[in-house]
Amino acid sequence: MLKMHSSFVAFRYVKGSPEKGELGDCPFSHRTMLTLEEKGVPYNKLLLDELNMPEWIAEVTEGKSTIPFATELETGKWLYDSDKIVPYLEDKFPERKLGKPDEVPQVGANLFPAFMEYVKTTDKADEDKKREALIAELKSIDSELKKSEGPYVGGQDVNAADLKLGPQLKHVIIGSKAVKQWELPKELTAIHTFMEAIQKRESWKNTYYTEKYVADGWHKKLETMGVK
Predict the structure, then answer these.
(1) Does residue 26 have an active-site annotation?
(2) Over 50: is that where the pLDDT of 197 sits?
(3) Which InterPro entries does the entry link to (predicted)?
(4) CATH, domain range 111-224
(5) Which of 72, 172, 178, 198 has the maximum number of C-beta atoms within 10 A of its C-beta?
(6) Active-site annotation holder among 10, 14, 26, 145
């Protein structure tokens, strides 16, 4: 049972469908919610349609209009960008230590860039090259996971690196299959074990969004980029 902090409540603005009440497919929102869940920090999810963002959001995010962002009710402080929110939470709630970016292994730093290059390419020859680059990055992650005492980067328990890596791997695995009909190789056993383990955690179950949302989300994103 996670210890809950009654002195802090945040309103978390995340990608989703306000009409359906369903959480959307943003890996950065997922990362910050996993952090809140693992730390036992109470929060309320407010779902926002990424294509119909209220104008006031730009005022509290310095014109960025990005998801996720949050307001801390205790102080009225606005927080945005998962790379800023996660370290802030680590400082404010040190009882459940997850680590900051400079305190945990930097595993998979090039995963999302490699994935993006792969799914957006339309040239067949270039596609093979981009896929090999993605596989190389995945093999590097698999190797790092095997070096730990497993199944996580943090060993037997998750740390901040795991909570960032998990959502990104979810998108890479589902997105690659949806867009390129390519599946994660079975020989990357440590990644498969990692995903099986993290998906069993209560924090993951409490922040679940469907594979369909991820697949549809990448099709829409590529369409807006002019990729067909």
Answers:
(1) yes
(2) yes
(3) DHAR1/2/3/4 (IPR044627), Glutathione-S-Trfase_C_sf (IPR036282), Glutathione_S-Trfase_N (IPR004045), Thioredoxin-like_sf (IPR036249)
(4) 1.20.1050.10
(5) 172
(6) 26
